[in-house]
Sequence to fold (151 residues):
Amino acid sequence: MAFTMRVNGATHSVDVDGDTPLLWVLRDVLGMTGTKFGCGMALCGACTVHIDGAPARACITSVDSIGTSEITTIEAVGATDAGAKIQKAWLDREVPQCGYCQSGQIMSAAALLASNPHPTDSAIEEAMSGNICRCGTYVRIRQAIKQAAAS
Ligand code: FES
Ligand code: FES
Fold:
């Protein structure tokens, strides 16, 4: 079935089953491989994208549920004010270790900063709690979010 989707400011037509996860469409159909597969069950946050600015797990979001919503992925989040601040802070603080979880971390952090420019520690904790990092970069993630908020 054909679906028209808005991704990173462009319109795409994709021909997939309606229950296909957005993650597979992004990676396998549109070739946007920055969004990662981790658990496939909304438990790790590796697949986080923005849907109308809100963080969402692409692994459990079916393509037929998206409608006309605007999807933003790690490939384009740097074009937003919050995304640019977060990415600069990530580089300054050298946050990533293996890097696998980091696009999801950045997407959650950018959504947080866009909705709450000066988050408290507890707000950061709450917003980032669904993003798992097996390398344990949590301290640098928090430092980078605070740096971005102060910039
Ligand atoms: S792959 Fe989607 S939350 Fe883990
Ligand atoms: S940097 Fe390796 S899983 Fe997070």
Notes: The longest strand covers residues 2-7. Helices lie at 22-29, 81-92, 102-115, 121-128, 138-150. The mean pLDDT is 97.
